[in-house]
Amino acid sequence: MRSQRLSSPFQSGPTVPHWVNRLVVGLLRSPFHALLSGTTMLLTFTGQKSGRRYTIPVRYLRTNETLLTLTDSPWWRNLRGGVPVDLSIAGQNVRGRAEVNTDPDDVEQAIYSMLRQTPSDARFYQVHLDRHGQPDMASLQQAVQVHVLIEIQLEHPA
């Protein structure tokens, strides 16, 4: 069901150009990571079909020992079923277990929370904000249709 929703004409391709992602990955791996690492982390996972390791920069929101991120790109399918992931957060390498959540209410709440943290990201979600910074409900509902929520439970060393 979710993959049908993701093929919506609302989604027009990658939210961020690949060259920008490469630049952000380099910055987050550098001593200058603090410029972005308060809201952006590196997520590394293994492709289910290819076995290849992928590292992508994603915005995140931390709630206790859980990190939330959203995507409208198809890479999320590699995380179905709860898979181990490696993260680089604020210059620190940690491990976690990622779960895909497609519940529309949870996705909506996550988008809303992410926009409270970083209102300038509204353009990436294609959500319009009013003059008070509140999301337009019609565009928020459209965004819910093309995004999935990734919940990452941080693992602690034994």
UniProtKB/TrEMBL annotation:
InterPro entries: Split_barrel_FMN-bd. This is DUF385 domain-containing protein. The lineage of its organism: Bacteria, Bacillati, Chloroflexota, Ktedonobacteria, Ktedonobacterales.
